[in-house]
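The protein record filed here.
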Amino acid sequence: MEKSHQNLISELEEKARKIRVLVVKMAGMSDCHTGGSLSMADVLSALYFHVMKVDSSNPAWDDRDYFILSKGHTVPALDSALSIKGFFPESAITTHLELDSIISGHACAKATPGIEVSTGSLGHGLSIGVGTALGIRMDKTANRVFVMLGDGELQEGSNWESAMSASHHKLDNLIAIVDRNRYQTGPTEQMMSLEPLADKWKSFGWGVRVIDGHNMEQIVDALESIPFEKGRPSAIISETIKGKGVSFIMNHHMDHFDNERLKLALRELGEEV
C-alpha cells in the first residue's frame, strides 16, 4: 500500500532531524561547517529518501540519479544522509577527520561511497552538472542531475557561465538547488548582493521556483514538479536558516561544539543525551 502523503512528510521530517543529529555529533568531535550543513538537511532528506533514484548496495548503478554537492564544505550533511540511507555504516561517522577515515572534511568521491564528485573549491559543481547532464542526453537515458549550491558560492562567475550553457542546451534533466541561508563569513547581501536572485536565474533561461527550504510539503512539491518547464533546466531557491535546528548557532558562524554545547544542541534536536 502506498504511504499517505502525511506519513511521507512525517518520515522525511524525521530523516532530516536524524541528519541534523549526526551533523551535530560530528561537530562535537572536530571542526566542521555545521551551520551550512544544518540548513540543507530538509532538502537532502527529500532527495535521498523520496525523490532520487539511488541504490546504496550499488553506488555506481547505471540508472541512478546524480547528486553533486557543489558547496563541498557542508559534506557532514551529505555523509549523514548517505549513512542513514545505508551506503556505509552509521558508525563511520564517529571517525570524522581521522587518518584514513572515509568521512573527510570536504566531499571526496575517492573515499566516501555514494559521493559522485570531489568538491570544496567553490564554483565548479554546476559546470560538472552541465557536463553530466549532457552526457546523459547523449546516452539517451532518463537519469537526472541535482546540484546543491551555496548562495555565497553564486558570487563565483563560473556558475553563471554554466547557467547560460545549461539553458542553451535545454538541459531539463538538470536541477540546481540553491541553499539560500543568506550567510557566508557574513551576511551574503553585505558581502556581495545576490538579489534579485530568482530573476537572475530566470534571465538565464531557467525555470525557477522559490520555496521555504524547511517546509517539507513545499520541498516535496517542488521536487516532484521538475522540470518546471519542458526544455529548460530547473532552479530551486531554497530559503533556509543557517544552523537550523540549533538555536544558539542560527544565522551566524560557529563550527565547533564543546561538550556542553553538544549536549544542548542534541537536546534541542530531540535526542536523548
About this structure: The first helix runs from residue 5 to 29. The mean pLDDT is 95.
